[in-house]
Write a structure and sequence with these properties.
Blueprint (H helix, E strand, L loop, with lengths): L2 H20 L5 H11 L2 H25 L9 H17 L7 H13 L1 H33 L4 H27 L2 H5 L8 H17 L1 H26 L8 H17 L9 H12 L4 H25 L7
Helix pairs in contact: 1-13, 3-4, 3-6, 3-10, 3-13, 4-5, 4-13, 5-6, 6-7, 6-9, 6-10, 6-11, 7-9, 10-11, 10-13, 11-12, 12-13
Length: 317
Protein backbone atom coordinates (compact mmCIF):
# COMPACT_ATOMS: atom_id res chain seq x y z
CA UNK A 1 0.00 0.00 0.00
CA UNK A 2 1.21 3.52 -0.74
CA UNK A 3 2.17 5.53 2.32
CA UNK A 4 -0.36 8.27 1.68
CA UNK A 5 -3.27 5.79 1.80
CA UNK A 6 -1.92 4.24 4.96
CA UNK A 7 -1.60 7.72 6.48
CA UNK A 8 -5.24 8.47 5.61
CA UNK A 9 -6.36 5.36 7.52
CA UNK A 10 -4.05 6.32 10.41
CA UNK A 11 -5.28 9.92 10.67
CA UNK A 12 -8.91 8.81 10.52
CA UNK A 13 -8.28 6.31 13.32
CA UNK A 14 -6.50 8.85 15.52
CA UNK A 15 -9.29 11.40 15.09
CA UNK A 16 -11.90 8.76 15.95
CA UNK A 17 -10.01 7.70 19.09
CA UNK A 18 -9.70 11.32 20.28
CA UNK A 19 -13.44 11.85 19.77
CA UNK A 20 -14.23 8.66 21.70
CA UNK A 21 -11.99 9.70 24.60
CA UNK A 22 -13.78 13.04 24.91
CA UNK A 23 -17.22 11.44 24.70
CA UNK A 24 -16.68 8.67 27.27
CA UNK A 25 -19.81 7.99 29.32
CA UNK A 26 -18.05 8.16 32.73
CA UNK A 27 -15.69 10.59 34.39
CA UNK A 28 -12.00 9.83 34.23
CA UNK A 29 -11.88 9.49 38.02
CA UNK A 30 -14.63 6.87 37.94
CA UNK A 31 -12.91 5.15 35.03
CA UNK A 32 -9.61 5.01 36.92
CA UNK A 33 -11.32 3.59 40.00
CA UNK A 34 -12.96 0.87 37.91
CA UNK A 35 -9.63 -0.01 36.28
CA UNK A 36 -8.00 -0.30 39.70
CA UNK A 37 -10.87 -2.48 40.80
CA UNK A 38 -10.19 -4.85 37.89
CA UNK A 39 -6.70 -5.52 39.23
CA UNK A 40 -4.86 -8.45 37.62
CA UNK A 41 -7.91 -9.28 35.50
CA UNK A 42 -7.40 -6.23 33.26
CA UNK A 43 -3.97 -7.29 31.89
CA UNK A 44 -5.33 -10.84 31.53
CA UNK A 45 -8.16 -9.48 29.37
CA UNK A 46 -5.70 -7.49 27.25
CA UNK A 47 -3.44 -10.52 26.79
CA UNK A 48 -6.40 -12.74 25.96
CA UNK A 49 -6.88 -10.78 22.76
CA UNK A 50 -3.37 -11.65 21.66
CA UNK A 51 -4.68 -15.21 21.39
CA UNK A 52 -8.02 -14.24 19.83
CA UNK A 53 -6.38 -12.13 17.11
CA UNK A 54 -3.94 -14.99 16.46
CA UNK A 55 -6.90 -17.32 15.84
CA UNK A 56 -8.48 -14.72 13.52
CA UNK A 57 -5.20 -14.30 11.65
CA UNK A 58 -4.79 -18.07 11.31
CA UNK A 59 -8.26 -18.34 9.78
CA UNK A 60 -7.40 -15.65 7.22
CA UNK A 61 -3.96 -17.19 6.64
CA UNK A 62 -5.56 -20.54 5.73
CA UNK A 63 -7.83 -18.80 3.23
CA UNK A 64 -4.98 -16.85 1.62
CA UNK A 65 -2.72 -19.91 1.39
CA UNK A 66 -5.49 -21.98 -0.19
CA UNK A 67 -4.89 -20.06 -3.42
CA UNK A 68 -1.24 -21.10 -3.50
CA UNK A 69 1.82 -20.45 -1.37
CA UNK A 70 3.16 -16.93 -1.07
CA UNK A 71 6.73 -17.12 0.17
CA UNK A 72 7.07 -13.43 1.07
CA UNK A 73 3.83 -13.31 3.10
CA UNK A 74 4.47 -14.56 6.62
CA UNK A 75 1.96 -15.25 9.35
CA UNK A 76 3.37 -12.36 11.40
CA UNK A 77 2.60 -9.97 8.53
CA UNK A 78 -0.96 -11.23 8.31
CA UNK A 79 -1.29 -10.99 12.09
CA UNK A 80 -0.28 -7.32 11.86
CA UNK A 81 -2.82 -6.67 9.09
CA UNK A 82 -5.47 -8.46 11.17
CA UNK A 83 -4.96 -6.32 14.28
CA UNK A 84 -4.80 -3.09 12.27
CA UNK A 85 -7.85 -4.07 10.22
CA UNK A 86 -9.96 -4.70 13.31
CA UNK A 87 -8.71 -1.43 14.83
CA UNK A 88 -10.02 0.47 11.80
CA UNK A 89 -13.30 -1.47 11.92
CA UNK A 90 -13.81 -0.47 15.56
CA UNK A 91 -13.62 3.26 14.76
CA UNK A 92 -15.57 3.14 11.49
CA UNK A 93 -19.29 3.92 11.37
CA UNK A 94 -21.22 1.11 9.68
CA UNK A 95 -18.72 -1.35 11.19
CA UNK A 96 -16.76 -3.81 9.08
CA UNK A 97 -16.49 -1.24 6.29
CA UNK A 98 -13.15 0.44 7.00
CA UNK A 99 -10.77 -2.36 7.84
CA UNK A 100 -11.55 -4.44 4.77
CA UNK A 101 -10.29 -1.91 2.15
CA UNK A 102 -7.17 -1.52 4.30
CA UNK A 103 -6.55 -5.29 4.36
CA UNK A 104 -7.06 -5.57 0.60
CA UNK A 105 -4.61 -2.74 -0.08
CA UNK A 106 -1.99 -4.21 2.27
CA UNK A 107 -2.35 -7.72 0.84
CA UNK A 108 -2.38 -6.69 -2.84
CA UNK A 109 1.43 -6.35 -3.23
CA UNK A 110 1.80 -9.98 -2.12
CA UNK A 111 -0.97 -11.78 -4.03
CA UNK A 112 -2.51 -9.32 -6.49
CA UNK A 113 -5.73 -7.34 -6.22
CA UNK A 114 -8.18 -10.11 -7.24
CA UNK A 115 -6.80 -12.73 -4.88
CA UNK A 116 -6.47 -10.17 -2.09
CA UNK A 117 -10.06 -9.05 -2.57
CA UNK A 118 -11.48 -12.58 -2.72
CA UNK A 119 -9.59 -13.68 0.40
CA UNK A 120 -10.72 -10.62 2.39
CA UNK A 121 -14.35 -10.98 1.25
CA UNK A 122 -14.33 -14.67 2.11
CA UNK A 123 -12.73 -14.02 5.50
CA UNK A 124 -15.34 -11.36 6.31
CA UNK A 125 -18.07 -13.80 5.31
CA UNK A 126 -16.56 -16.41 7.65
CA UNK A 127 -16.26 -13.81 10.41
CA UNK A 128 -19.93 -12.83 10.06
CA UNK A 129 -21.08 -16.43 9.64
CA UNK A 130 -19.41 -17.32 12.94
CA UNK A 131 -21.70 -14.73 14.56
CA UNK A 132 -24.73 -16.69 13.36
CA UNK A 133 -23.20 -19.92 14.71
CA UNK A 134 -22.63 -18.31 18.11
CA UNK A 135 -26.17 -16.91 18.27
CA UNK A 136 -27.68 -20.28 17.32
CA UNK A 137 -25.48 -21.96 19.95
CA UNK A 138 -26.77 -19.48 22.53
CA UNK A 139 -30.37 -20.35 21.65
CA UNK A 140 -29.66 -24.05 22.25
CA UNK A 141 -27.73 -23.36 25.48
CA UNK A 142 -30.50 -21.18 26.87
CA UNK A 143 -33.17 -23.76 26.01
CA UNK A 144 -31.15 -26.51 27.75
CA UNK A 145 -29.97 -24.71 30.89
CA UNK A 146 -32.71 -22.14 31.61
CA UNK A 147 -36.51 -22.23 31.88
CA UNK A 148 -38.07 -20.80 28.73
CA UNK A 149 -41.17 -18.63 29.16
CA UNK A 150 -43.46 -18.04 26.21
CA UNK A 151 -42.06 -14.50 25.80
CA UNK A 152 -38.49 -15.80 25.73
CA UNK A 153 -39.61 -18.63 23.44
CA UNK A 154 -40.79 -16.05 20.90
CA UNK A 155 -37.49 -14.18 21.15
CA UNK A 156 -35.45 -17.36 20.73
CA UNK A 157 -37.63 -18.41 17.80
CA UNK A 158 -37.12 -15.05 16.05
CA UNK A 159 -33.37 -15.23 16.62
CA UNK A 160 -33.30 -18.76 15.19
CA UNK A 161 -35.27 -17.82 12.08
CA UNK A 162 -33.13 -14.70 11.56
CA UNK A 163 -29.87 -16.66 11.81
CA UNK A 164 -31.07 -19.53 9.61
CA UNK A 165 -32.28 -17.21 6.85
CA UNK A 166 -29.00 -15.29 6.79
CA UNK A 167 -27.04 -18.56 6.97
CA UNK A 168 -28.85 -19.80 3.84
CA UNK A 169 -27.98 -16.53 2.09
CA UNK A 170 -24.33 -16.87 3.03
CA UNK A 171 -24.12 -20.52 1.96
CA UNK A 172 -25.47 -19.53 -1.46
CA UNK A 173 -22.86 -16.79 -1.55
CA UNK A 174 -20.09 -19.29 -0.80
CA UNK A 175 -21.31 -21.61 -3.55
CA UNK A 176 -21.85 -19.03 -6.27
CA UNK A 177 -19.94 -15.93 -5.12
CA UNK A 178 -21.34 -12.65 -3.84
CA UNK A 179 -19.15 -9.87 -5.20
CA UNK A 180 -21.01 -9.44 -8.50
CA UNK A 181 -24.40 -9.73 -6.82
CA UNK A 182 -23.49 -6.88 -4.48
CA UNK A 183 -22.76 -4.43 -7.31
CA UNK A 184 -24.70 -5.76 -10.29
CA UNK A 185 -27.60 -3.33 -10.07
CA UNK A 186 -28.06 -2.23 -13.66
CA UNK A 187 -25.68 -1.15 -16.35
CA UNK A 188 -22.42 -2.87 -17.16
CA UNK A 189 -19.44 -1.91 -15.04
CA UNK A 190 -15.88 -1.83 -16.38
CA UNK A 191 -14.70 -3.75 -13.33
CA UNK A 192 -17.42 -6.42 -13.50
CA UNK A 193 -15.07 -8.97 -15.09
CA UNK A 194 -12.68 -8.71 -12.15
CA UNK A 195 -15.57 -9.18 -9.74
CA UNK A 196 -16.61 -12.30 -11.63
CA UNK A 197 -13.08 -13.64 -11.19
CA UNK A 198 -13.29 -12.87 -7.48
CA UNK A 199 -16.63 -14.67 -7.23
CA UNK A 200 -15.20 -17.72 -9.01
CA UNK A 201 -12.36 -17.88 -6.47
CA UNK A 202 -14.81 -17.69 -3.57
CA UNK A 203 -17.00 -20.44 -5.03
CA UNK A 204 -13.93 -22.55 -5.87
CA UNK A 205 -12.91 -22.66 -2.21
CA UNK A 206 -16.31 -24.04 -1.20
CA UNK A 207 -16.44 -26.66 -3.98
CA UNK A 208 -12.87 -27.97 -4.13
CA UNK A 209 -11.26 -27.02 -0.81
CA UNK A 210 -13.92 -27.78 1.75
CA UNK A 211 -11.32 -28.60 4.39
CA UNK A 212 -10.02 -25.04 4.12
CA UNK A 213 -13.55 -23.68 4.17
CA UNK A 214 -14.60 -25.53 7.31
CA UNK A 215 -11.23 -25.05 9.04
CA UNK A 216 -11.48 -21.28 8.60
CA UNK A 217 -15.09 -21.27 9.82
CA UNK A 218 -14.21 -23.42 12.84
CA UNK A 219 -11.35 -21.09 13.80
CA UNK A 220 -13.62 -18.04 13.60
CA UNK A 221 -16.21 -19.80 15.75
CA UNK A 222 -13.46 -20.82 18.18
CA UNK A 223 -12.36 -17.18 18.42
CA UNK A 224 -15.94 -16.25 19.35
CA UNK A 225 -16.05 -18.88 22.10
CA UNK A 226 -12.62 -17.89 23.47
CA UNK A 227 -13.72 -14.24 23.56
CA UNK A 228 -16.42 -15.29 26.06
CA UNK A 229 -13.55 -15.80 28.49
CA UNK A 230 -13.20 -12.00 28.54
CA UNK A 231 -16.70 -11.65 30.01
CA UNK A 232 -15.95 -14.39 32.53
CA UNK A 233 -12.71 -12.69 33.66
CA UNK A 234 -14.40 -9.29 34.04
CA UNK A 235 -17.40 -10.63 35.95
CA UNK A 236 -15.10 -12.51 38.31
CA UNK A 237 -14.05 -9.11 39.62
CA UNK A 238 -17.61 -8.65 40.88
CA UNK A 239 -18.83 -12.17 41.63
CA UNK A 240 -17.78 -15.82 41.54
CA UNK A 241 -21.29 -17.08 40.81
CA UNK A 242 -21.17 -16.70 37.02
CA UNK A 243 -20.48 -19.78 34.91
CA UNK A 244 -18.75 -19.82 31.54
CA UNK A 245 -22.03 -20.98 29.97
CA UNK A 246 -23.70 -17.80 31.24
CA UNK A 247 -20.87 -15.75 29.78
CA UNK A 248 -21.46 -17.34 26.37
CA UNK A 249 -25.10 -16.24 26.57
CA UNK A 250 -24.17 -12.73 27.73
CA UNK A 251 -21.72 -12.21 24.88
CA UNK A 252 -24.01 -13.76 22.28
CA UNK A 253 -27.11 -11.72 23.11
CA UNK A 254 -25.21 -8.48 23.72
CA UNK A 255 -23.37 -8.85 20.39
CA UNK A 256 -26.70 -9.52 18.67
CA UNK A 257 -28.12 -6.23 19.93
CA UNK A 258 -24.89 -4.36 19.26
CA UNK A 259 -24.78 -5.62 15.67
CA UNK A 260 -28.33 -4.40 15.10
CA UNK A 261 -26.81 -0.95 15.82
CA UNK A 262 -23.93 -1.54 13.39
CA UNK A 263 -23.99 2.06 12.14
CA UNK A 264 -22.45 3.42 15.37
CA UNK A 265 -18.64 3.68 15.78
CA UNK A 266 -17.56 1.03 18.29
CA UNK A 267 -21.34 0.31 18.56
CA UNK A 268 -21.52 3.10 21.14
CA UNK A 269 -24.48 2.68 23.49
CA UNK A 270 -25.61 -0.57 21.88
CA UNK A 271 -22.85 -2.59 23.52
CA UNK A 272 -23.58 -1.18 26.98
CA UNK A 273 -27.32 -1.68 26.62
CA UNK A 274 -26.78 -5.17 25.25
CA UNK A 275 -24.63 -6.22 28.20
CA UNK A 276 -27.10 -4.75 30.69
CA UNK A 277 -30.07 -6.52 29.09
CA UNK A 278 -28.17 -9.80 28.73
CA UNK A 279 -27.09 -10.02 32.37
CA UNK A 280 -30.53 -8.83 33.45
CA UNK A 281 -32.11 -11.68 31.51
CA UNK A 282 -29.96 -14.11 33.50
CA UNK A 283 -31.12 -12.63 36.84
CA UNK A 284 -27.88 -10.75 37.44
CA UNK A 285 -27.53 -7.11 38.39
CA UNK A 286 -27.63 -4.73 35.43
CA UNK A 287 -24.63 -2.97 36.98
CA UNK A 288 -22.58 -6.07 36.11
CA UNK A 289 -23.37 -5.50 32.46
CA UNK A 290 -22.42 -1.83 32.59
CA UNK A 291 -19.11 -2.64 34.29
CA UNK A 292 -18.38 -5.39 31.75
CA UNK A 293 -19.08 -3.02 28.87
CA UNK A 294 -16.81 -0.38 30.41
CA UNK A 295 -13.80 -2.70 30.74
CA UNK A 296 -14.49 -4.01 27.23
CA UNK A 297 -14.34 -0.42 25.92
CA UNK A 298 -10.97 0.07 27.58
CA UNK A 299 -9.70 -3.12 26.00
CA UNK A 300 -10.94 -2.02 22.58
CA UNK A 301 -9.27 1.38 22.91
CA UNK A 302 -6.01 -0.30 23.94
CA UNK A 303 -6.00 -2.57 20.90
CA UNK A 304 -7.12 0.24 18.59
CA UNK A 305 -4.01 2.17 19.58
CA UNK A 306 -1.85 -0.94 19.05
CA UNK A 307 -3.45 -1.58 15.66
CA UNK A 308 -2.96 2.00 14.49
CA UNK A 309 0.68 1.94 15.61
CA UNK A 310 1.29 -1.33 13.74
CA UNK A 311 0.17 0.35 10.52
CA UNK A 312 3.48 2.24 10.43
CA UNK A 313 5.72 -0.68 11.42
CA UNK A 314 7.35 -3.27 9.16
CA UNK A 315 5.65 -2.25 5.93
CA UNK A 316 6.57 -3.64 2.52
CA UNK A 317 8.72 -1.18 0.56
Amino acid sequence: MKSRFRNIFLVFGIVAVVIMLFTFDVSYEELLNNLKRAGIYLPLVLLLWLVIYAINALSWYIIVRSGGKVSSLTFSKLYKFTVSGFAINYVTPVGLMGGEPYRIMELTPYVGVERATSSVILYVMMHIFSHFCLWLSAVVIYAVFYPVSWEMGIVLGLVTVFCLLLSILFVKGYRHGMAVACVHFGSKKPFLKKLENIDSQIALLHRQKKSTFYSALFLEYLARVVSCMEVWLILNVLTTNVSFVSCVLILAFSSLLANLLFFLPMQLGGREGGFALAVGGLSLSGAYGVYTALITRVRELFWIVIGLALMKIGNKK
